[in-house]
């Protein structure tokens, strides 16, 4: 069991794919934690007994509710901040959360950013992360950045109902990463007993190789037994094919520029940071598919 150098860890997004995985790992290590959620009924079931601390639960409707966030962080020294949902007010939400953390006396923030985060990134959602990173640098808090690539799971969701991945990615490559690897890295960073070992450090979390969307489609086709292929679009075609979704122009732009970022080579770099943090290689897309058949079962033709 770990010695909890930074006391209770607050985990935001604790009902999500990443937050729930992290909460399970922290619980197994005996770390005290406060789960911050919109809906307390969606809190993950965590191991208990045998001296394991029971997780606290705090309800925060949204990061923009600064007072609720401040109360939820009272007495917390370390905050794991999962990025807010994509949209026009995302950076403002992050600013509110960071200001609430500082007001509550939080000392350290570990933030889920994105590879290539910068105000001028091709991928517009990565621009949000770039602005948020700047907010953290100016906050006076200790911080660590986990710059994740696209998740393996996202590649399965790129497949349309007709078995086609469409987008202006060209022959670019993406070094996608698993939620499990990011959760393992976050656990290593949060529970490292070396004081300040990860302060003011950015880690790039990727898979062990970079693949094209055509290669991803071929792997999925082999697994599912159905034709799945990648079909390049122009940027204009990409915007037109997504125009019917009621998500707002900022989200549509993010969807399209996720592909143009791949085409530009912004997501192809393979980092060794996962291995450095957890002592084993990152999981490839193919390995992840083998481990999680339930995550691509929606692609299998109905019997």
UniProtKB/TrEMBL annotation:
Gene3D superfamilies: NAD(P)-binding Rossmann-like Domain, UDP-galactose 4-epimerase, domain 1. InterPro entries: NAD(P)-bd_dom, NAD(P)-bd_dom_sf, NmrA-type_oxidoreductase. Residues 13-192 form the NAD(P)-binding domain. Transmembrane segments: none annotated. It comes from the Bacteria. Pfam families: NAD_binding_10 (PF13460). PANTHER family: NMRA-LIKE DOMAIN-CONTAINING PROTEIN, QUINONE OXIDOREDUCTASE 2. This is Uncharacterized protein YbjT (DUF2867 family).
């Amino acid at each position: 069991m770990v010695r909890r150098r930074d006391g209770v860890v607050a985990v935001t997004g604790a009902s999500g794919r990443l937050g729930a995985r992290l909460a399970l790992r922290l619980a197994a290590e005996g770390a005290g934690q406060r789960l911050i959620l919109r809906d307390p009924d969606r809190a993950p079931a965590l191991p208990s007994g045998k001296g394991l601390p029971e997780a606290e639960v705090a309800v925060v409707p949204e990061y923009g509710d600064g007072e609720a966030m401040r109360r939820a962080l009272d007495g917390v020294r370390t905050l794991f901040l999962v990025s807010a949902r994509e949209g026009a007010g995302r950076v403002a939400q992050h600013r509110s959360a960071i200001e609430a953390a500082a007001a509550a006396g939080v000392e350290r923030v570990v933030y889920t950013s994105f590879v290539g985060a910068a105000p001028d990134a091709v991928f517009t959602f990565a621009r949000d992360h770039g602005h948020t990173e700047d907010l953290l640098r100016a906050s006076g808090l200790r911080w660590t950045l986990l710059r994740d690539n696209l998740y393996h799971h996202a590649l399965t969701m790129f497949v349309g109902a007709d078995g086609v991945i469409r987008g202006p990615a060209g022959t670019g490559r993406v070094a996608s990463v698993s939620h499990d690897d990011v959760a393992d890295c976050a656990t290593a960073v949060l529970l490292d007993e070396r004081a300040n070992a990860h302060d003011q450090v950015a880690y790039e979390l990727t898979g062990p190789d970079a693949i094209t969307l055509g290669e991803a489609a071929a792997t999925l086709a082999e697994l599912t037994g159905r034709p799945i292929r990648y079909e390049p679009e122009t940027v204009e075609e990409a915007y037109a094919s997504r125009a019917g979704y009621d998500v707002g122009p900022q989200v549509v732009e993010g969807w399209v520029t996720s592909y143009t970022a791949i085409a530009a080579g912004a997501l192809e770099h393979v980092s060794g940071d996962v291995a450095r943090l957890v002592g084993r290689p990152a999981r490839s897309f193919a390995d992840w598919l083998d481990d999680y058949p339930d995550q691509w079962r929606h692609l299998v033709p109905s019997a």
